[in-house]
Design a protein that fits this description.
homodimer, 760 residues, alpha+beta, Creatine Kinase, Chain A, domain 2, Dna Ligase, domain 1, D-amino Acid Aminotransferase, Chain A, domain 1, 3 domains, 6-stranded antiparallel sheet, 5-stranded antiparallel sheet, multifunctional enzyme (chains A, B), metal ion binding (chains A, B)
Chain lengths: 760, 760
């Protein structure tokens, strides 16, 4: 057999050796706040389980299975697991939680165990068959499956170096076979370190089992023991070679010892084919390791450190000289069973072997120049061989011995994990470096089961796929449904206005200027009129001055210069009397209307403006730099000037009920309040916004209207509005999390626009 | 009547007073290089005259009429006139020119005068009727019509200040009536200054005319004299009021003295209605002044200075106290006729009145703080009253007296003006501040008669309209035919590659890095392989390093740092062996394929590389900063390094026929040569480019392929290519003006894409 260690070292393949694909499947039971299994159905909000890529149900209706897509790193895998948990935890009924234990501490009565309500008749029947063979209590056990694939480039490289008398596929299978052999031999180490099903109530055991198992003792992992969910003793499948494996498994099915190939349970499985026989031609694509208990101390069932540990544990299986024989594998299985039932606070019976194995891992890490972080993790595990109380089971038993009831502990942790998911309900942990609008869209897409590909997370670029239909989305709502010219039009305020006017919409008159002197020359055109002076194409209200009752030449010039600081072209526009509203159009409907109120505080006759601002800024919905639905109110030069205009300083105490404005502009980004106005707004204006969006050739648009009376319908003769801006890629967050009024889930509307066939 | 002067001064309306809309219609005859009228038809390349907004024919088939659209300034009007001339002059047959004189110095025989070949039967019949009444020689005369409209805001403002007992429309008509009255009274001043039809051959005159007109003398303007194209003596129409005007003109038609209302010729016309009667309800929208001869010394028939002069001349007609009576208008007409026939080198008989009028203008200019430029123009005109040789007619006569034959002079000028239009054939004068691709697109759109609206020239944003179908275009080829997501994808090289790969196209493998250290860590993955290191999203070849045979760690690190100077993310990509080609796709066709050869010179065994570069850079197609189809070759640090790699300095003398590369990258923007390869390239690759464009969701795309053998078809098994980049808004110029090979008029393809119904 190939000496992988030697090739990797001599051919400098360490970098490639460390690259891999990862995926996790994590089951757990939904429980009530008492710790008993929930009686409700799988939440309907998750849509159709028959295609859902992230949220399935395992055996029981109460047993969601969370599946991370294949990722290129452990970090990404963990992010996905976090995000899917965020979605599931925030989608559960208020009084439901995810049990952080593999074996429910309180088992339901047998007749209360409900097999998953699936669309497929065959899937339900298979589950009922399993109940008949294994009983239904063991089916209630949950665990984590860890999928692992080496970089195909590594395998190709090794193949080219080694030039074996085999096909590339067969060579690949040989590699995975070696890993599987050694895994079976050394899996007990993982059970020792990470086993976490320390107890089960009496009803868990089959009658004949209880006489053997000392119920009064804790175990490292009942789930990984012979009392776990294992095949009957007459099922034997060789892992010696692919051929042996295929022949054995087919024989087991033919003889009726297994009802189907998938009924063969092993802590490692060959993946990538539908039928075992296809392994002969396609080879093993990747491996699935099914050994892992839920770690109650990890919010998502497994610590990220442990995921890294497993990665290098698996690499070491390939690296090591040894390739376990059939006999050694049988031994390994026995060691694992024994380890599983050891008292968690006693040292391992195989401490020496474990320590030696981890030392070998450390040697490998040294050889491949692995990150220090990884080395530290392995050293920690190594220490746990001398400190059994540091193993997961050890920690659990310690907690119970210190007086904690296992059920109570589980419920407390479950509640804590759910509360953490609700801490920033507008964000999606795992992806919280992305824009909030994309986070919310991802939340909805995960919930509904759209396949997500993060094409570029720095660039907020994703694809969503339903069946064979793929759509690309950037920044939450930029899609193929818009024509390109639309955003190009909207990037240019002058062009936008010209086109809206051409199409018969009411826009304020304006002049465009390329120089201060040109703007000054036209000052006479604007004397005595309310005007707005603004840069041609920047956003967020920067450089905008508003003179409701006209500007003196001096103030006009000042404002012109301020605007020119933001852009090389500026606009001087008629000021329209009325209130500004943002209309959010998707497709042919105005989905939300928002009133934005300039940053303000309401006096109480006691506190100063400064104190009132500080108080208002304490709201967890207010943050900085678009990391929250609302922005904190600043107390800078502009705010100072604004309250000066009302006769105040920051130390003034406004009277009770009095509203003090801190800004003239109403942008949320400068501390304004967002107030949903969708239902109040007369439909005629909503229709106009839709028509404008169509005229601009886009599907998603944020149109800013000035409307003096929102309840009076617009007519051709008396339009009753002026449109002052149209924005592509408009902010969604302000509508989804308004300061006041109803939330409008625009991200769901985006999904409906893109995937009408899903009938969301 | 309102005292406009007083209101404008007291209410500070000077700025508004000076704003106006302008338009020009300029006729001229197509001539041969001998100065005789062309015998060819109106060029078919101009498409259909029945809707052409810019290029029509006047009376004769040989008489193009060039029409500028309404503009908000004289400068813009002049730009349009320039651009339309560029199109017409460059579209004429090689041996045809535009006669710069109002009256052809060589008249064709009567039976050789060809009435315009128009679609409309009625239009042709009307022209034939005109021939029957006026003879066909006078129809051959050309001139310039100047359309003028005051700013409606001015009229509204004046109306609100004055509050007359009239409707706004009637008030507007009163204003234009005053201007018309005073124009008729003082038009002779324009004839004196700008008259330019000094002679006509005998055949021009009706038999009864020749006995009166002293043919041996030059005139200021035969066209503006009684021998011009004027109504018969029995046609009388009052300008006293709208009512009188309408009644008179209707009576003339009823009595058969005019065949139709449009047969009423006057040096000023009321515009904005189809039938005179509509003036009573709609009012006068604007005025048309028809007095102007072609100025042979102005490339487009009238100097811009004179356009400005006319603007303020017209304003003064409103400003002055006087409102000419019927009697004074009749006098004015007589003064004009007399002035027209004066000897151009003698002072005006009405010098005092002319000088006084211009002094009045200067007072007005002072009052409204007009630009010094305008004041200078008026002073120049004033001086011409004391120096008749400075008038246009005066200059013409002086030239003839100095021995120039009028025909020869006209032909020489016509040739000069045509040559000027051909100086930068890839540009469009009038719009040469815009990008060249937009200039060429505008050229084609003007030629074919699409209505153009320059929405934002700084932003290269235009609209094109054919009948009721409007399309917007930015930067020459960004349109509604692209979906928005396509350009967003292409802005991101990583996303582009992922999506192309997902769709089954061959892309080189690559790694993406956000930090130097991450890129360095992966160096082992790239050792010994040809690689390209480049920033993720910048263009023009900046920051790209190519290592065809792999890079040392040192060079790798250097290249990584160079790439990071251009972007915060970089790519390390497999280097593909082969030649790079740019495929330009529009709709579902690859319209052009281009080979770009890195900046190079070919040795001659005599000259140094420096001399060879200087020589190559002399080509007028080579310029700087994208102001020409090719860029000059630089001799900077990078070029120095590149030739060093070939064993040279700039002072080396390469042997005859040897090609020396000055750059490794092939971008045209760094001096590369563009070679059309459309016909040579195997169709399979062209098909692939179309499929990729569709996969990216756009209509226009520039796809960069690496192809080792362009003549070998691509197959599924042996793709024979790698796609390395896809570009939205790809450069068109390099295909339209390649260094070698056939020109591909992609701008026409864009028009075909946008307006398939035009069948261009």
């Amino acid at each position: 057999m190939t000496d992988f260690k030697e090739i990797i070292l001599s051919k400098h393949l360490s970098t490639l050796f460390s690259k891999a694909s990862f995926g996790i499947e994590k089951e757990s039971q939904r429980i009530t706040d008492k710790g008993s299994i929930a009686k409700t159905n799988h939440p309907a909000v998750f849509g159709n389980r028959s295609f859902h890529p992230y949220i399935q149900t395992d055996f029981a209706e109460t047993q969601p299975e969370l599946i991370s897509p294949p990722t290129q790193s452990v970090d990404e895998m963990y992010e996905w697991l976090t995000a899917i948990h965020d979605v599931v935890l925030r989608s559960l009924p208020q009084d439901e939680y995810l049990l952080p234990l593999s074996i429910p501490p309180v088992m339901p009565a047998s007749d209360e165990v409900r097999v998953a309500v699936l669309d497929s008749e065959a899937d339900v029947q298979y589950r009922e068959y399993l109940v008949s063979v294994y009983g239904n209590k063991k089916q209630m056990v949950s665990g984590i499956h860890y999928n692992f694939e080496l970089d195909p480039a590594l395998i190709k490289e090794l193949y080219q170096i080694e030039k074996p008398a085999l096909s590339l596929k067969s060579f690949q299978s040989e590699i995975y076979l070696k890993m599987a052999h050694n895994f079976l031999r050394y899996q007990w180490i993982l059970t020792y370190l990470m086993g976490a099903s320390i107890a089960a109530d009496a009803s868990y055991f089959e009658k004949e089992e209880t006489k053997d198992f000392p119920l009064q003792h804790f175990a490292r992992s009942i789930r990984s023991s012979q009392y776990g969910y294992v095949n009957k003793g007459d099922v034997h499948v060789s892992f010696d070679s692919i051929e042996a494996y295929v022949n054995d498994i087919e024989e087991m099915v033919a003889s009726g010892k297994l009802s189907a190939e998938k009924e063969f349970y092993s802590t490692v499985r060959f993946r990538g084919v539908k039928r075992a026989r296809d392994l002969l031609t396609n080879g093993i694509a990747y491996l699935e390791f099914r050994l892992f208990d839920l770690n109650p101390f990890a919010a998502f069932g497994m610590h990220k450190k442990d995921m890294h540990f497993i990665h290098y544990f698996l690499l070491y299986l390939l690296w090591m000289d040894e390739d376990a024989t059939e006999e050694q594998m049988i031994l390994g299985k026995q060691l694992n069973y024994r380890t599983a039932l050891e008292n968690p606070l006693t040292p391992s019976a195989y401490q020496a072997e474990g320590t030696a194995f981890l030392n070998g891992m450390l040697e490998m890490l040294d050889g491949i120049h692995a990150d220090e972080e990884i080395v530290a993790i392995v050293k920690e595990k190594s220490a746990a061989f001398h400190h059994p109380e540091k193993t997961v089971a050890g920690q659990m038993v310690t907690a119970v011995k210190e007086g904690q009831d296992l059920t109570e502990m589980a419920v407390a942790l479950a509640k804590k994990y759910k509360a953490e998911a609700w801490k920033r309900p507008y964000a999606l942990r795992g992806f919280d470096d992305m824009e909030l609008s994309t986070q919310i869209l991802l939340f909805d897409a995960i919930q509904k089961g759209l396949k997500i590909n993060i094409l570029d997370r720095h660039d907020q670029f994703i694809s969503l796929t339903y069946q064979n239909h793929r759509e690309y989305v950037k920044n939450g709502n930029m899609t193929s449904k818009d024509s390109y010219i639309g955003p190009l039009i909207m990037e240019n305020k002058v062009v936008t206005k010209k086109i809206l006017a051409e199409n018969g919409f009411a826009v304020p008159a304006s002049g465009e200027y390329h120089s201060v002197s040109a703007a000054l020359k036209d000052y006479p055109l604007f004397t005595g009129k309310g005007i707005v002076i603004k840069p041609k194409s920047t956003n967020y209200g920067l450089g905008i001055s508003i003179f409701k009752d006209g500007a003196s030449l001096e103030n006009y010039e000042k404002a012109v210069r301020i605007a020119f600081e933001e852009d090389e072209d500026i606009l001087v526009e008629d000021y329209l009397q009325g209130t500004e509203y943002r209309f959010f159009v998707i497709g042919n409907e105005t989905k939300a209307v928002l009133l934005r109120v300039p940053a303000n505080v309401k006096g109480d006759g006691i506190r100063t403006i400064r104190e009132l601002v500080d108080e208002k800024n304490k709201d967890s919905m207010r943050g900085k730099n678009h990391r929250s639905p609302l922005e904190r109110i600043e107390m800078g030069e502009l705010e100072k000037l604004t309250i000066q205009g009302q006769g105040y300083t920051f130390e003034s105490i406004p009277s009770a009920g009095e509203i003090v404005r801190l800004r003239d502009n109403s942008n949320i980004s400068t501390g304004g309040d967002s107030i949903d106005f969708t239902d109040q707004m007369d439909d005629s204006y909503k229709k106009l916004a839709v028509d404008m969006t169509a005229a601009l050739g886009v599907a998603v648009c944020g149109v800013d209207f000035i409307i003096p009376d929102y309840s009076r319908p617009s007519t051709k003769e008396a339009p009753g509005y002026g449109v002052i801006e149209a924005n592509f890629n408009p902010a969604m967050l302000i509508h989804i999390y308004p300061y006041q009024g109803e939330s409008r889930r625009l991200t769901m509307d985006v999904l409906r626009l893109l995937f009408p066939e899903m009938l969301l």
